[in-house]
Amino acid sequence: MKHLFLICMCVLSFAFAKAEPFTATFFQEFISHQVTKGETLYSIAKKYNLKEKEIVKLNPDAKDRVYEGLVLILPASASTSTETTATAQEDIRFKTHKVRRKETLYSISKKYDVTQDVIKKYNKRLYSETLRKGDKIRIPLNYVGVVEEKVTITNTGGGISQDDAPKDGGPTYTSYVVQPKETKYGIARLYGITIAELEAMNPEMKDGLQLGQTIRVPNTQLEKTDTAAINENLYAFYEVKKGNTIYSLLKQFDITADTLVTLNPAIADGLKEGMILKVPKGVSGTITGSTGNEGNTVAIVSETTKTSLLDSLSDFSTKKIVLMLPFGLTRTTADSLSNAEDVIKNDRALRISLDFHSGVLLALEKAKQQGISTDLKVYDTEYVRGETATNARKVERIITENDFSDVDVVIGPLLSSNFNRASSLLATQNIPLISPLTQREVDFRSNVFQSRPSEAQLRAVMLDYIKERADGKNIVVIADKKNSKIKSKLQSLFPNAKMVTFREGDNGPYLGQYDISDKISEFQENWVILETNDVPIISSATTKLATLLTSRKVTLFTTYKGTAYDSDAIQHMDLMHLNFHFPSMNKEYDYTSTKEFVDTYQDLYKITPSEEAIRGYDITYDTLLRLAFAKNLYDAASTGIETSYIENKFRYDQKSSGGFYNNAIYLMKYSEGLMLEEITISKISEVMEED
């Protein structure tokens, strides 16, 4: 209690020390209460003559549960009730109910006088599974939830009537006209509310936003100067997390209470988990994406938010997923089982498809544990090598002969030509398609999501990293003829860089004994950029560089790590000693942190998960969480939120021409013990689209 009182005093002192006025309705005097054994939110509210929502407003975590020892902030106006705590509600008690024939969740909720949502809360599987006879579920007997006053909103064709105002004198609502390229997320954060709250005000938004549509928003207009500031990208955005308090936010953002309220008027009515706050640019933990005002993409600010969506799921409706992969089942079922085994061994496309599919199934099971149910349909696109037209006709038949109208997302097809055909056919229905594996750039229609970063994106991120840190370094470039384009780019970025020229021999290009060492400085740190996918050149260059390490400091880079680096002819100990840096779309999983996934996969399939299996899991699990977070993939992508899983991470940016691409890229380096280590950086500039 004493600790909390000091925190409150610090907040007040901080505000006064800045000699700035602050909003009286926001800052007031507080008292604290430490929860004792047996106390509940209801009993505490009753004890102090408060409404439960008044306590939750100051203590967001208390909405879910209170526990012994928890310290709550209460308004100074709270007065202790004369009633003894003996009359207070005890901790929640449960009864196990065995479901009978013909019983429904609705009938059970009525029987015990508790809402269906509360029953689901304590029986999470009911979010994804139907109630069956014989099921045993937990029923809270004395549950008291937070009572929220409901507002009836009447569409008056612009603005709302006085009847729309909450009866407790809370904020009224006003009309807002949707502008080009705006999203639910952008509008929600503009007004300091959650997406769920915006949708509650506008039930008709379920099917998405339309240009020119009039919707309802809180009557908390931003100042004109604030709007201008947004357009000048002076501000970033922050999503309120569980456990955040006003004090912690003031300390994190290093701003006064008055400034925080001015930027976010809705916060005067209480801090809520999921709120999107406008804060000064450059604050750690801010998120990126369209501001929802000017319709452009904001440059990445500070560190991109890596978010677990598990705490923000709101839509538990069944997700309808289509998976399209080239299994070629007609080849494996025509003959004997032994023939099928031979086909699997010799058919790379089939092996990839089977591995990817195994990861998808595991992701569905994992999502089910979070209350997300899935209706999965799998189509075999088959594959005939060299028969592009035949393959395309198969994809066309799948789409034209089946109903895709209620599909939430299609993952696949695998091949870029088939994917382009499918995205073209489904574009008119606005059904999103995720390109799962191909690194080749696909046709970016409005419904396209390329989940694998391209070579150009990887190179751009690595170049950006080097460019920002190149001052004082001796830059040396080694590039073969096949990489002349990136060599020219490096020459333009680093005019003073030293270029290593290859010699021509009977067996191809090679490096002379002193071609590299002559370029290496004894007095500066040397950054060597190696651009080739030729095994002999890589082997020769790394060996020569490693011999110089006794007297010179050398770090090795490449803007694109090709398959040649995995060759046994390359001395990986040399790469480790050279602290080799490279960009990557994924990272090798760490068994310690992903033990649950790896053990589950091995128990189920009796093998270690391949890269394709992990990618199938990561893409599918991320997609399902995004669909439960924002109802459709377009809204989820527009948030700019970055997520990370076993080996892959995702942050979708939108191309100006339409479609989304994954711009979440790892920068990796070889470290001690031949371990691959992720490079933590504070800023990665946005990758520009190449001509």
Automatic annotation (TrEMBL):
Keywords: Signal
Pfam family of the protein (one): Peripla_BP_6
Signal peptide: 1-19
Domain LysM intervals: 31-74, 95-139, 174-217, 236-279
Family annotation (PANTHER family): LYSM DOMAIN-CONTAINING GPI-ANCHORED PROTEIN 2 (PTHR33734), MEMBRANE-BOUND LYTIC MUREIN TRANSGLYCOSYLASE D (PTHR33734:SF22)
Protein name: LysM peptidoglycan-binding domain-containing protein
Taxonomic superkingdom: Bacteria
Record SMART domains: LysM
InterPro entries for this protein: Leu-bd, LysM, LysM_dom_sf, Peripla_BP_I
UniProt entry tagged with the keyword DNA repair: no
Stated family: Belongs to the leucine-binding protein family.
